[in-house]
Amino acid sequence: MAPLITFDQKTAMRLAPFYMALFLIVGFQLPFWPVWLSYKGLSADEIGIVLSAPVWGKIIFTPMITSIADYVGRRRAPLVVMSAICLGLFQFYFFAEGFWQIFVLALSIGLFTSSFTALGDNLVLTIGRTQQIDYPRIRLWGSISFIGGAFLGGQMLEGRSPDFIPVLLALSYLLLFVCCLILPEINVGRSETGKRGLRRLISSPVFMIFLLAAGLIQGSHAVLYTSGTLQWQRQGIEDGTIGFLWAEGVIVEIILFAFARRFFKSFSPIQLILLGGAAGLIRWAVMGFAPGVPVLIVSQMLHGVTFAAAHLGAMRYITDELPIEVSARAQGLYSAISLGLVMGGCLFLSGYLYEFFASHAYFVMAANCAIALVLCGYLSRLPHRSLL
């Protein structure tokens, strides 16, 4: 009699909890951590510095971590070690006082947390080379957990002191450690291609163009992330409707992840990134005119394409176009350059853009997507060959 659960399904059930635990931390931290930092006496600019610490870790440290993972040929082991370090370091928040102690902790933890997604994605995608593992359907549990964390955190914090926020996060880091322990391990052998892999990737013009194109599309969300709520409030939109608009985008993202194999089966990786850029060009051009709620509802539905399709295209590009021996380093550079340097730069500029241009700042984000489309058009015309 055939088993009720296939080996691939068993593997997927060991992978999904990792994303659930990781994004549960984000769901608690993104809306509520600034509240605790303010409670501890940090000013607005100090809070901004503390929150930016993981971004610097992503740019500088993630390529180093992923290079080590490629060198040892393991993915689960570094994740277990990093989750244990983060769990231990986080306990010091219960004794931290003042900006400098909190900043040093945030930077220290951020050096490791910035690499979790890159290594986790690479683990799933590497397993997917030999097994029928559907990355989007595993990744969607992260988005579901993010929504659940934000909602659950709000319910649990009602009537409690902000000192309960680090308790929630400490428990979440413990859960992440446990989920890393149950991840399957892989063993990637070394080869001549894998030697000096980071240098080879950085010196590849095609790969760097890919990173820039993907980063420009993800970075085009910057004005929405930093000033979207402010703009909607300026338009007189009620807080409940604003909350719905934010939730709608993530819900559509989850649906798209769930049916990605069916929707995008015939798309190449570059075509998926092109689709994300084209949707972004339309979305931000419309948002630049400060439309009303009916148009905003349609615009937010495009989040599933501007983020999810472009992200899936980037993941497939790394998997399809690069040798497995350098895949973790490629994932690390995607995290550091596309999601760190390029997107971080867009986030830094977005506040100034909104201050000077208000809703018209979205036109600059549309220009980001237009440039990404040109770069993707160039990549799509290149003959199929190894980037290294």
TrEMBL record:
It is found in: Cell inner membrane. One of its GO terms (cellular component) is plasma membrane. The chain crosses the membrane at residues 12-35, 77-96, 102-128, 140-158, 164-184, 205-224, 244-260, 267-286, 292-312, 333-354, 360-379. Pfam families: MFS_1_like. It comes from the Bacteria. InterPro entries: HcaT-like, MFS_assoc_dom, MFS_trans_sf. Residues 13-364 form the Major facilitator superfamily associated domain. Keywords: Cell inner membrane, Cell membrane, Membrane, Transmembrane, Transmembrane helix, Transport. It is a multi-pass membrane protein. GO terms for molecular function: lactose binding; lactose:proton symporter activity. Its main location: membrane. The keyword Protein biosynthesis does not apply. The keyword Cell membrane applies. PANTHER family: 3-PHENYLPROPIONIC ACID TRANSPORTER-RELATED, BLL5896 PROTEIN. This is Major facilitator superfamily associated domain-containing protein. It comes from Sneathiella chungangensis.
